[in-house]
Design brief:
By secondary structure, the protein is α/β, with parallel strands linked by helices. It has a six-stranded mixed sheet with strand order 2-1-3-4-6-5, sandwiched between helices. The longest helix has 17 residues. It has one domain: Rossmann fold, CATH 3.40.50.150. The N and C termini lie far apart (about 40 Å). The radius of gyration is 15 Å and the shape is globular.
Length: about 160
């Protein structure tokens, strides 16, 4: 397994593992062709299901409930991010976490020079204000952990 990729994903896994209970049930939304994040979380004792529109289109996951859901480098690819986040929030247990990883557009970023927008599959970008709007709209408590990691906690 690619050590550098695991290190990259640890930006999300390390703080997430501090938030979730032992042996939690999770979903890796947008798991991709070679799931790594789910393996890292399983190594930490959690049960993780996979969903990816192209590689693991398991629609049955939308009938389950999860303690946490991860979406690493996914939200910037979504045509309807509010719809997808609402769908994910619906299957998240109260007190559960939706952990997002995407590059946040900050005031320091010069958009015309920003490397992140150069990927043609990146069609949506989020700044702190838009993330806070989504969190409020979906009745989630938001914590922006870093310029790349966001935690949304389901209230209730």
């Amino acid at each position: 397994m690619d050590t550098r990729y695991r290190e990259f994903l640890s930006q999300l896994t390390v703080p997430l593992l501090e938030k979730i209970l032992e042996k939690s049930d999770g979903l890796d939304f947008g798991s991709g062709p070679g799931p790594t994040l789910s393996l890292m979380l399983e190594e930490a004792g959690h049960c993780v299901e996979l969903y990816d529109k192209f590689y693991a289109s398991n629609e049955h996951i939308f009938t389950k409930r999860f303690d946490f859901i991860t979406a690493t480098e996914v939200i910037e690819h979504l045509r309807e991010p509010r719809f997808e986040l609402k769908r994910l929030t619906a299957i998240l247990k109260p007190g559960g976490y939706l952990a997002l990883m995407t590059q946040i557009l900050t005031e320091e970023v010069n958009f015309s020079d920003w490397y992140y927008k150069n990927d043609p599959s990146h069609i949506g970008f989020f700044n702190e204000r838009s993330l806070m709007y989504l969190a409020n709209d979906l009745e989630l408590e938001i914590t922006i952990h870093s310029e790349r990691v966001i935690f949304l906690k389901k209230l209730g």
